[in-house]
Amino acid sequence: MQKSTKEYLEMLIEEMKADVKVTILDEETTEKIFSEIEDDIEGYRFENQQRIKDSQKEIADVVFTA
Amino acid sequence: MHLISYEIVPIAEVSQLIDKLFEEKYSLHKYPKNNSIVQLNNYLNSLKEDIYVLVEYPYVDKVYRDSYYHYYSSKNQNYHRDCVRLSFFNKDIDKTFFRDAEKHKEIRESYLGFVVLRPTFPQVIGRSVIAPSALKESNFKSCITSVSTTANGLKLNVKGFPHASQNSETITCAETTIWCIMEYFGMRYPEYTPTLPSKISKILAAQSFERIWPSKGLTAQQISYALRELGFGVKVYSNAAYGKDFLQLLRIYVESGIPVVVAIQNAQGIGHAQCVIGRAKYDGPEIDGLSTFEDFGNNVNVFDFETMTLEHVFMDDNHPPYRVSQLESPAGFYSQPEWADCVITNFVVPLYSKIYLDAGEARAYAKSILRRYINNLKILNDVDIVMKVFLASSRSYKDYLNSNATLDPVVKELLLRSPMPKFVWISEISNKELLKEENVNGFLIIDATATKSHGLIAGLVGKTYFTENLNEILQINISLQPFKCYQNNLS
User: Fold this and answer.
1) A38: nearest CA in chain B?
2) pTM of the full predicted structure?
3) pLDDT tens digits along B424-477
4) Structural domain contains residue A20
5) What is the ipTM for the molecules in this complex?
6) In B24-139, beta strands by DSSP E
7) Residue B467 belongs to what H/E stretch?
8) What residue ranges do the domains of chain B occupy?
9) Residues 7-66 of A with CB under 8 A from B
């Protein structure tokens, strides 16, 4: 069976004989963080969409000769 | 048959020698000759005064010959085929050294680059690559590549950024910037190939309803189109659309080691294209000058590195290479009044085609991760931090991690064993004092191919190393000391 990310990290830490521990964040906090980040990025992309369109429109008209 | 003639003279004597050569070899009259010498002197004056110059004639230059065969040879007026090449050395080289294998190492170590003088009088400054160390003023860091060339039959290498002036017939500023970009990427990465003026013209002809030569300049859209056809995933930005973020995004791309084509304009009708390839070195006062911050909660204030107003390095085809000015005043090195008040109105970024996350999104994502982790996990509190966002190839970044003697070995191994795409966005976390010592104490590594969220490959904030997969966040507590920052993008 394929190993989980946690198992991979633990294997590596064991290999290095390091005294550190891998923990998985609880589901509720994880979901909250992921959904907040998702909202932030969506907000940025929505705002950015118009800027991308405006930039593309503007570059068609500017001539560089000097 | 003509033999190749060569002379080695101190830089102060070059214009006199070239004046004579223009008269003898090109039968040049006083007016174009004097104007050409003015252009040459303007170029040479930017270089150190103790340089010695090897002058070779005739020289076959690939870029000029391309314009010659595709354009100048079709004209009634007689144009010459051959160029002159000037090679620069940081000390006097005896002519006999070139034929003495034991002296070749000495020549190679003193080599500072070359410039081709093409017979398009008076705009004679052709292709050149000059090492920044040849300049009178070089307190900057810029995109640099190693270029293989020859001087007097000896193979040499110079590290610099390609430059050329426009001839205003086959290449104006717009074509020159495309040529410079391709020359740089073609010399540096196997994915790209240097190009020639006729190839640029051919690409543009497919999209144009008018003839291309004699060139009357290009639109920013044409520059973007040509770069896309030459293999880049191009992004365009307009000042009007991006407002206060505009120059900050430009700074992020420059910090990423990407030469950016900028379009400058003023109310007096100037429309000009330049390349921005680097920035001035910074020190305590510039770092302390960072004043605008965002409150991320938990009493953590975040300063953006890209709000630092440093001078930047321009490659401008009307001036010698590596001109320095503020981004707010991109024609600051022009003395003519008609160039006053120019501003950058647009910029075009030649990105690797599989970088799907642009600078704005990468910065927004990095900030969001930091803000949400700080608020939900309390991994930082009561600190001021500086956040520096840039793009790096994972190959170069892993090499930096691997050779970083101050980085915790567990973190190093975790990162070196993490699969990464060809390019990653890095957000280095530090504070003003650490930045002055070129140190950082945290980072976020973001997948540049990510288009949805969940692009975080790994992060190190406070004393927590974390990584994400689609539905979980894994944490490892690490006791960490500050470590050296990444500096491989600009030299």
Assistant:
1) B453
2) 0.97
3) 999 999 999 999 999 999 999 999 999 877 799 999 999 999 999 878 999 999
4) no
5) 0.94
6) 52-59, 83-89, 111-117, 125-130
7) strand B464-468
8) 1-165, 359-484
9) 9, 12-13, 16, 18, 20-25, 29-30, 32-34, 36-38, 40-41, 44-45, 48, 50-52, 54-56, 58-66
